[in-house]
Amino acid sequence: MRARSAVFDLYGDHLTEFGSWAPISSVVTLLGSCGIRPAATRTAVSRMVTQDWLAPARRNGVRGYLATPAATARLAAAHQRIYRPVEVPWDGRWRVIVLDRAGDRAQRDRVAATLGYLGYGRLAAQTWVAAHPNPELESALGPLGVGWQSFAADHLGEPATLAAQAWDLTDLAARYHGFLDRYAELVAGGRADLTPEEAYPIRAELVHRWRSFLFIDPELPAGVLPQGWPGNAARALFLEAAETLRPAARTFVSDTLALAGAPLTGAE
């Protein structure tokens, strides 16, 4: 687990209910429970300030960092996708993006990563397709300096064939099977007996691994996916495990914030 990803997970999964702010000492402690070194955490936070994801802020005289409006919007959208329990309805039309120009390799890589996160798959060098419109498209692509055209289209062929061309569904299915294999025992055995200090890093890893699917799963409708698709079972397992671990993990977060003298905005 990288420090930057762990900071995003912490702010998105826990700190929103505490005012989206935390002392740097608390961030270091919480990530430290996941095996991340203090220096790596501080470097990640510093870079996230430069990238306008976090902003320095003091509360009650305590130095800390606040999620910026851009981060808050991105984290809210990610949180909705992470914990969504059901499939998004599909209107049967594909959303197509045609990029105006490729740019250099670094720009192409950034654009590809962004479009993948937004649910798009590549049909051709400059052409991408998704099953659903994404309200983040303009705000996500605009800063990357690339022009594009978008439109909705009807596919005259077999939808499953188009999906198999745009996405590596075999690899995605294998990743879901790996997730199920890794965490099935966690759900089967129940973990209500874990202490807060034990529950937080386990849940942090669980959410971190599940969040990675946001970058590779286009959330295709069931009728387009292969039979026996493991994504549904993986989602059900994740939601159950995350809910089981949530109370104890939340306690560890609130106790860590309180220990640093942080005002527990939004705490119960």
TrEMBL record:
This is PaaX family transcriptional regulator. It comes from the Bacteria. Transmembrane segments: none annotated. Residues 167-254 form the Transcriptional repressor PaaX-like C-terminal domain. Residues 89-146 form the Transcriptional repressor PaaX-like central Cas2-like domain. Gene3D superfamilies: 1.20.58.1460, 3.30.70.2650, Winged helix-like DNA-binding domain superfamily/Winged helix DNA-binding domain. Residues 2-60 form the Transcriptional repressor PaaX-like N-terminal domain. Pfam families: PaaX, PaaX_C, PaaX_M. GO terms for biological process: DNA-templated transcription. The lineage of its organism: Bacteria, Bacillati, Actinomycetota, Actinomycetes, Micrococcales. InterPro entries: PaaX-like_central, PaaX-like_N, PaaX_C, PaaX_trns_reg, WH-like_DNA-bd_sf.
